[in-house]
Inverse folding.
């Protein structure tokens, strides 16, 4: 079963612009993670935010979490062509294995 | 540090045939996962091992899929007989602990096409 649902499904922007993607989930969580997947590759961990945190930064990434709305957002600032990938949010409602959403496909053109 | 190794990378088989995928996790990682990712969707957990024991296999289609991790290190996922809807990428992943908030490290995946 899918816990997270990303929005939008696809996003196309120009280099230098900011990209924002959202994730909604259904059950209470301990933490939420974001992963990136380049075409034909495995998933790479980007950032983790715990349920008692509201915002977290890592380089050009900014993640927010609103547990009252059961939602999270991932902001990538000053996008580059190399950011072109699919982005997935993942939660662990049962406390162990991650459950992934369907992902947002980001395309950054130069 | 070597990453999660998977083989083969690509496999094409006919329906009703069998296939096996192999995974070697990051050294020292006790937890190993197999995920199935159908094109355009997110990964779906098939099975989770802690050392050589199964933690969760609730979404594994046990009539055709099997997985083992006999010595608590590498693992094999088998499909027999394969169906057209099994066409997907099979991702192996590992983590050092099974607790919440642990980062999971993925392999590059094994791409299966069933014709």
């Amino acid at each position: 079963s899918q816990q997270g649902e990303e929005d939008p499904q696809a996003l196309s922007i120009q280099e230098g612009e900011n990209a924002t993607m959202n994730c909604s989930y259904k059950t209470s969580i301990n933490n939420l993670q974001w992963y990136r997947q380049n075409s034909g590759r495995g998933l790479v961990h980007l950032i983790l935010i715990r349920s008692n945190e509201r915002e977290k930064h890592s380089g050009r990434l900014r993640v927010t979490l609103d547990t009252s709305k059961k939602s999270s957002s991932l902001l990538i600032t000053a996008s580059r062509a190399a950011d072109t990938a699919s982005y997935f949010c993942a939660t662990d409602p049962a406390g162990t294995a991650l459950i992934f959403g369907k992902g947002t496909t980001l395309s950054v053109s130069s | 540090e070597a990453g999660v190794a998977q083989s083969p990378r690509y496999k094409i088989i006919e329906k009703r045939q069998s296939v096996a995928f192999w995974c070697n996790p990051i050294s020292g990682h006790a937890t190993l996962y197999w995920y199935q990712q159908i094109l355009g969707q997110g990964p779906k957990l098939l099975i989770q091992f802690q050392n050589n024991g199964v933690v969760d296999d609730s979404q594994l289609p046990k009539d055709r899929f099997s997985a083992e991790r006999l010595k608590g290190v590498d693992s094999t996922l088998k499909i027999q007989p394969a169906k057209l809807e099994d066409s997907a990428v099979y991702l192996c992943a590992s983590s050092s602990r099974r607790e919440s908030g642990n980062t999971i490290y993925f392999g590059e995946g094994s791409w299966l096409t069933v014709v």
